[in-house]
Amino acid sequence: MRVLVVEDSEPTRLLVVSRLAKEGHDVDFAENGRQGFLKATSNQYDVLISDIFMPEWDGFKFISAMKVVSPHLPIIVVSSSYAEKELRDRLHEFENIVEILPKPIDFNILFNILKTIKVQTHNAIRKMARIVCTIGPASDSPEMLGRMIVAGMDVARLNFSHGTHEQHEKTLNSIRKAEKEWGKPIAIMQDLCGPKIRTGKMPEGGIVLKKGQFITVQADPVEGNSERFSTIVPEIIPDLRLGEPVLLDDGLIELKVVTEGEREAECVVIVGGVLKSNKGMNLPVTKLSIPSVTEKDRKDLEWGLKHSVDYVALSFVRSPEEILEIKEIIYQAVKGDIKVVAKIEKQEAVEHIQDIIDVSDVIMIARGDMGVELPAVKVPRIQQEIIRMCWESNTPVITATQMLDSMTHNIRPTRAEVTDVSVAIRSGTDAVMLSGETAVGVDPLNVVRTMASIICEEEQYSTGTERRYRHFSHDLQTNPAIMAAASMIKSAATMLIDRSGKLYPQMSKWNRKVPSLLVTRSLHVARQSSMYHNIVPIIIDNNLTRDEMLLLAVSTAKEWGYLKPGDVLVVVEGGRLTQGDIPQLGAFQLVHVE
Hints:
Its cofactor is K(+). The protein is an alpha/beta fold.
């Protein structure tokens, strides 16, 4: 943990810093409240330890200022100048004060408090929806990743449209290091770039296309000019048909095909603009013959399977057959349980959405290219409809693209972005995704904290009663009496003892309003469950009996803050798999937490 010690007494300051450093903490210090505030606002810390009586801003002023800029940052107060009761009375309004310690400091107590703060990472953000963060240059250090985990990151996305295998391996190792330090399983999603169609080379400054102008798109490489330009995917040229639109640079420029050909197609400019090198080309109505899994994707996938990623996302999906194809590739390579995410961004995918949902493990509503391929005004309705269909099919769904896009450059989101996230949560999305905001943004940690706070605020007031209980898939063998009885019990949480690792996906939104504590022996299952709404994984040792496992799981849940004495807990136990690997739901019991 990174700790800032704010203390004016040099002997005390040096003692605290040295003792914390010996315990393995990354420690910084300040000599007074003003200096502490400047450091705390220009650096990222996991906890502050502050004296009260200091020159140049005393502890009260420092803590008041920190409440404004970092209201959730834990603060431990140490003081010999005030009686403990007086201090508690004066500091009672500050919810982030975790303890008040007298001087001289009892370091055993201090170390236990720091351990508790670290353990309560699981309880720091009590949100049900999950946050997927794209990792890039702004966020790929173990230190930053650790802070993002604390702030609420559940899934780390590696975007294979950028970077080398060596860079991705370094990032993956940093994620696993931060995961181990903070004790919270993090799923890794490998996002394959797919057949992204782009323009070829253009002269410096690009070429100017004017409305009504004719221009040829050709297969053979050429530096673009006012008469013709090439594409990096020449296989698309024979697929272009008369009258079909060709959208360039995220739809800013529009062409229409007027002459078909095997090696070139002539187009007329409908909406002009400046076209530069390597800009995206979208063909919203063209039936493409190129495969969704490219040679690059296959090599990237081989890397991902070798490094045990938890999810693989397939871009530009058009049909369910493409999902089945990549699942077969994965099965033949590792015969393991790697879940496949279908990215819905093409009109063809929207047209076949139910069939794609039926064969996918997770659906991602990728609104960037979708908003180019389809009229942008249709995207909100499509988003709502896909979320509804995923609910009814019991398939997790991620809402993605430009959710807090302005925070790539700014420290606060726009009102429209906050509303966008809130609507997605209210609609029932399992997860929301951050892209450039966390990959290259000015303050990735602030972005994750902002996203988590929007989720928590919406979940606090959205009852979700119309969808409180998700439909159970026909292939989940359930006892209707168990389901009916368990659903009527007002419990603090549901605990799933899932031996097969196949039950929790079906149970993810059984009761939307309380956490589902997943008891598992598998780290891989725990990581994958991080994608699912309201699932909180608890990893238990293999050698424990069922009763020992339950006792330890309840104790862990209490330590993390999910349970307290007097709570009622519904414990649901998964039975053995039936023929065909169908998970069975066994009997449940009520546990009164002591």
